[in-house]
Every structure is written in C-alpha cells, then in structure tokens.
Amino acid sequence: MAVNTESTVLDYLSWRGDLSLQSSAFNEVDGVILARLSYLPFEYLGETAQTDLTVGEAAKHLLERPDIADIALIEGDVPLLHALKDSARFCDMVLSDFVNEIDEDSQTQFSAVCIRTGENECYISFRGTDNTLVGWKEDFNMGFVCPVPSQVLAKGYLSRIAARQAKDTFRVGGHSKGGNLAVYAAAFCEEDVKKRICTVYNYDGPGFDKAVLEQEGYREICMRTRTFVPQSSVVGMLLGHEEAYTIVHSTQVGLLQHDLYSWEVKRDKFVYLDTVTDGSKLVSFTLKDWLMQTDAATRERVVDAIYTVFAETHVHTVKELSENWYAAAKSMIKTFGTLDEPTKALVNEAMATLMKSARIGFDKTFRAGKEKQGLTAESH
Above pLDDT 70, what percent of the chain? Predict the structure, then answer.
C-alpha cells in the first residue's frame, strides 16, 4: 500500500513548532500561518479580543468553546488552534487590534489583526473572503472599482498601527482577498510607513486593474512582495500582477487548492513547481479576456444583478446557502424572472461573452499544447 509522504502546514507545526525565531529565522511558511490567523474567529471572544492576548491564550479561549467546530471558517482551523496553543514558536506572539467589520449597505467585509512576532517586529494579517455573501460581493466589485472599501480600510489600518508603533518594522500578509489587501495597503501607505515594511506576503490573492499596476507605489512595493499560488490557481490568477510569483504544490485539485492547508511543505519552505496547470491558464485567460471585452459599467450592472438574485434568498452566508440550496435555487430563479428585460439581456450577453472567451482560451491553451507535443514527437 502506498504511503502518503506529502507534508503540509500542520505537519510543519509538528516538526518545527518548538523552534524559536531566534534559532530558526522567519520564513514563508510562518508567513502563511500568520496569514491564516486573521481567519480565526476572534470575534467570538467578545471584549477579550480587544485586549492584548498571546496566540496561546487566544487559542486556549477558543478551544474551550463547545461550538468551536461550528464557528471555525474551515475544518483545518481547529487543529491549527491546537497546534498553536502548544507551539513554542508561535504561542507567545502577542495579538492586538483585532477588527472585524461587515456592512451589507456599503458591501464591506474587512478583518485584520496585528501580531507581535518579536521586539520591534510585527506582522499585519488581513483576512480574506469569509463565509458572508457580502464578502463575496465585495470580491466581485474588484472587477470594476478600485479601491473597494476593504482596501481603504486596510491602508488605514496599517497606517494607524505604524503611527502608534513608530519603532517597529512590519511584515504584511494575507491569503486570498487578504493578500490583495496586504499589497494594496503596503503600496499606498505613507512613505515613512512603507520604508518600515520588510516583506509583503500574498498567498493566492487576486491582482489589480491596469490603473493600479501602473502606479509608482505599486511598482515600488513589488520588489518586496512574495506571491505564492498553487498549481491550479484560480483566485491568484484574477486581474493583473506585475510581481513575480512562486508556484506551490497542493495536495488538492482544482479550486480546492485555494485551501492553504493543502499546500505541501518541505522543512521551512513550500514545495515548488515550475508552472501552473493548463486549467489555471485557461481560467486566467478566460476571465482576463472577458474583462477586456466588457467595460466597467457593464461589469457593475451584471454583478449587481447577480447579487440581487442572491440577496432575495434572504441568506447571509455561503453555509446558509448550501444548507438551504433547494429553496434558495427556487428563489433565485423566481427573482431572475422579475428582472427587467434590459437587465436580463445584459446578463445573458455577458455570459455569452464569457463563454466565447473560454472557447478562445481553450484553443490557445489545450490545442496549442497538443500541437507542441506533436512537433516534439515528430522531432524524435
């Protein structure tokens, strides 16, 4: 019987969790663990979350809750809490300034925490998209507006912490939308703050539109940005990137590779690959081509129409949607039927353009690959 030798983030905590940062320097795997910390449900600690707590204390408080498995965003967060509670490397890091803001009216979902990793050193961790539908709506809004509210809040959060902790240097990081927020905040914060940022960690976060990519602040921070994507990345391929990125092997398939707990680790680094999969290239081409074919106003109207359909289900989280999928589906079909004819036509046209982009992308990605293989075979 084959033995699975692939090791991931939780294995890293078992091997190296007893090593202090003094004996083994901060690395990219530490960065992804701290990026995941902002997803932990500190909001359930009440007033305790507003005081300075060590990582070990926060983990202990959360694990004492009988409903921890229900309030954790994903299954891997519970074993992460157990590992952090007993980890000499992480348990004495100090958490502060946790914020969690969700506003359906302004379509804002933002959460962040400051983690003191050593004397005069902090890691600012930005949460990615959570389980709320408004969080997903804000993600889609990135396709036609910049900055979105969470980007503005991220910049303000970093500036506020840096002003109060004037002697500190910073690492800034996040996963998914949190990675995008980390890059945006670092790129557009005040110059005196930017000088104190040593590294930005972007774990499979989406990029930006052309207007942002051309700005000096973004270009400057690219030199200090480390971006990681799994081999079948979808989210990390969205919109534009100018910074170099590292491809990481994931033990999962497709969209499930977005789960950080599936990323393979060897010692204090990820396991690297040379290229993303053809499927990832196809998704990247399709979405970028679709964005080129549709103007911002059209994208906004399409996204707003789709969100209206979801909003009329009166569910607020993806979990509620999946648990009540039959009733939600009936409600969405009914709501789509009530949209005015121009809006329905616009959505249908946008979907047709998307499918056209996908067909072009398929030809470029898969047929070109087969032709290349054929030429290689003939040459032998």
Answer: 81
